[in-house]
Write a structure and sequence with these properties.
This is GTP-binding protein. The protein has nine helices and 13 strands. The protein has 340 residues and is an alpha/beta fold. The strands form two sheets. Strands 3-2-4-1-5-6-7 form a seven-stranded parallel sheet, with helices on both faces. Strands 8-9-13-10-11-12 form a six-stranded antiparallel sheet. Strand 8 and strand 9 form a beta hairpin. The longest helix has 13 residues. The radius of gyration is 20 Å and the shape is globular.
Length: 340
């Protein structure tokens, strides 16, 4: 017996620049998923080594699909319709959440969700943009077209990490959000990505327009991240490395063999001491336990337990070229000796 066609799946895009807490916010939303529903999460990462998918907590009724190696709006744009169709057909979700990379531009994703193929299948609802008030101290971010249009195309803006910002930054971020046109449905403030589930069902306003719709497309943003052949697997003490550059950002990633385990104090001190880092995410095996490590250049690292069990992996984003070999050597010195 054939299944009924998939129709009008509620869909939300959770945007925000690097380090604004998008993955944390999605984890919070998933904790409030109705027990009877199935939710799908599509996570896009700039680097080749996928980290965010491993940071989303596995639960019954949740399917996570990760697209790494560039932005959905440019390098991975052709993959988006295929990935969406496959995810919808196989999992048949009751809701779809999409987390683009913080460097991405939402316009092309919106166009895909509303084209002839998906117009009847997906019901695009509120686009929620997380804004860290401390970004006001980073003029290079404020000038970036992708950041500007993440705000322009959002239906709701949520000031996140307000516990780490001052009153002046929060007030200025609120004024910035309030002055956008068309006006936002709401402007909220929160900590640790605590989005209210009811915000997901607010309407999307199609009249919202991008100021720079062509700034980050396949023709204007060439991805030089070179994929490694699928058959290449890391060996103990010999991680698989990935390096790339796009739009002024450098990506450095490593995947370690499943048998590799780190000395926690050594690797934590090493990662804390790395300079020139815009963003660093990792999931690491330390003995019989696994931890997640998340660091932005503006904040101390946050550490937590991880349910990931496949391998240790690490991704660094930077606006300057780093010494890949030197970093890898430092990581290797933090490994525990393998037992014979």
């Amino acid at each position: 017996m054939s299944q009924a066609p998939i129709q009008s799946v509620p869909t939300n895009i959770i945007t925000g620049f690097l380090g604004t807490g998008k993955t944390t916010a999605i984890n919070h939303l998933l904790e409030h998923k109705p027990d009877a529903e199935r939710w799908a999460v599509l996570v896009n990462e700039f680097g080749q080594v996928g980290i965010d998918g491993s940071l989303i907590r596995e639960q019954d009724g949740i399917e996570v699909k990760e697209l790494a190696g560039g932005c959905l709006c440019c390098a991975l744009g052709p993959s988006l319709p295929i990935t969406l169709a496959t995810l919808l057909r196989r999992f048949r979700p009751d809701r779809l959440l999409i987390e683009p990379t913080g460097l991405g531009h939402p316009a092309r994703i919106i166009d895909t969700l509303q084209n002839e193929t998906f117009r009847q299948v997906l019901d695009l609802r509120s686009i929620i943009c997380l804004l860290d008030p401390m970004v006001l101290h980073q003029p290079e971010v404020l000038r970036q077209p992708g950041f500007i249009d993440q705000l322009n195309l959002a239906d709701l803006i949520v000031l996140n990490r307000i516990d780490l910002a001052g009153k002046d930054e929060i007030a200025e971020a609120t004024r910035l959000s309030t002055n956008l046109f068309p006006p936002k449905l709401a402007i909220h403030a929160t900590t640790r990505g605590q989005l209210a589930p009811e915000w997901l069902d607010l309407s999307h306003l199609p009249q919202r327009k991008a100021r720079y719709p062509h700034s980050h497309t396949a023709s204007s943003s060439r991805n030089s991240l070179a994929p490694v052949p699928r058959q290449e697997m890391p060996e103990p003490g010999r991680p698989r490395a990935q390096v790339g550059k796009q739009d002024g950002y450098y990506s450095y990633g490593w995947i370690f063999a499943a048998d590799d385990a780190f000395e926690w104090q050594a690797v934590q001190e090493y990662l804390d001491g790395l300079d020139g880092i815009t963003r660093l995410k990792a999931v690491l095996k330390i003995g019989h336990a696994w931890v997640s490590y998340n660091r932005n250049d503006s904040y101390p690292a946050t550490v937590g337990e991880s349910a990931w069990r496949r391998d240790s992996r690490l991704e660094i984003l930077s606006t300057q070229a780093l010494n890949q070999d030197q970093i890898e050597t430092g990581l290797l010195t933090c490994l525990k000796a393998l037992q014979p």
